[in-house]
Specification:
CATH superfamily of one domain: Putative Large Serine Recombinase, Chain B, Domain 2
Shape: globular
Helix content: 40-55%
Number of helices: 13
CATH class of one domain: Alpha Beta
Distance between the termini: 71 Å
Number of strands: 11
Radius of gyration: 28 Å
Length: 405
Amino acid sequence: MEQLECTTKSEHRKGAHLTYEERVIIQIRHRDGRSLRSIAQEIGCAPNTVHNELRRGRVLLHNGKRLGYDKDFQINEEQAKIVRLIYKLFLGGRSFYAITKELEKRGIKSPSGKDKWYISTVRSILTNEKYRGDALIQKEYTADFLDKTRRKNTGEIPQYYVEEHHEAIIPPDLFDFVQSEIKRREQNGKHSGVSIFANKIKCGCCGCWYGAKVWHSTDKYRRVIYRCNKKYSQKGKPCSTRHLTEEEIKWIFVKALNSLVEVKENVIAELTELIDSVCQTEELTEERDKVEQELGSLTEHLETLIRENARVAQDQNAYLKQENEIRARYVEKQGNLEKLDEQIAERESKRNTLETIIQVICGINEEQAEFDEDLWSGLLDYIVVKKDGQIVVVFKGGIESGIGG
């Protein structure tokens, strides 16, 4: 952006730290004493300048206060450890709420320096593209330069996505995997729970999740059990699946895990074959490139049509019919492109999951005697409790192990 000249030494010294509108105000203030309204009108032209710079690839971005980064997007390693921990906890199966409680338990301060963490803060850290090294420019804009009103950009001005803008704290592939996992959990309608056992046990009777219930909460017989959250939702027809204690859940997982370790080589071979058969994206990527080229051709065709209509007088009914046909084809192709993007992302996410499982299984060299929370979070998809008491442990990747009731 063309730099504005400041007229005093003090203003020149701090000029680099001023916003665009502040520099314009300083410049105009020393010219001819125009009113604030006229200043605001001049500033109103600023977005065009910014947009032109962005189109040329020049990024104008203020970092602000963001956990993990100092000024100019330099990584703050101490804070970056917290960011990586949050991603690790999430991929370990923790909900947003459970992550806030774990951070508070460890005495880790929030980005604002408070003891309390909020779900919105954790979610923001897990979904902010800055952590993968990219930058979405102009998420917000100044609606009124006089009172500094900031509004969320919902299409009022262009947005620009800049890849590899700065050093990433979270590897891009891992960040993308987290986004797909967030989407998957939301689609599955999982509840936010503190316990690592929450949203991991499914009722074989109604399909709902098990949740923690406290028995004898006020006396010496107090204990926590897990049962179907909707066991008694249908009057007179309670779910017939049994409850489980935490010790039973741990025993079930250890037993199923050991049965997996016994056939470790076979499991790894099956998972590798699964990656080769259902996680390939080459054909989808080729198809996507083809659709993208078709979209480009349609765009050029439409632009040519519009220019021709502006240059040469012609039947407007025929023109509008042709224009609408092109637009309809464009919308159809755009829909196809979005579906292909989703399919590619889904396959890449599945590949990441399966490769992670293989790494974890390769690291288990002997029978497990005790429950391991990291293995639970890293390997287990969910457990099904059937009506007859039979238990089915479903590992990530679709591998199942049955445990007698």
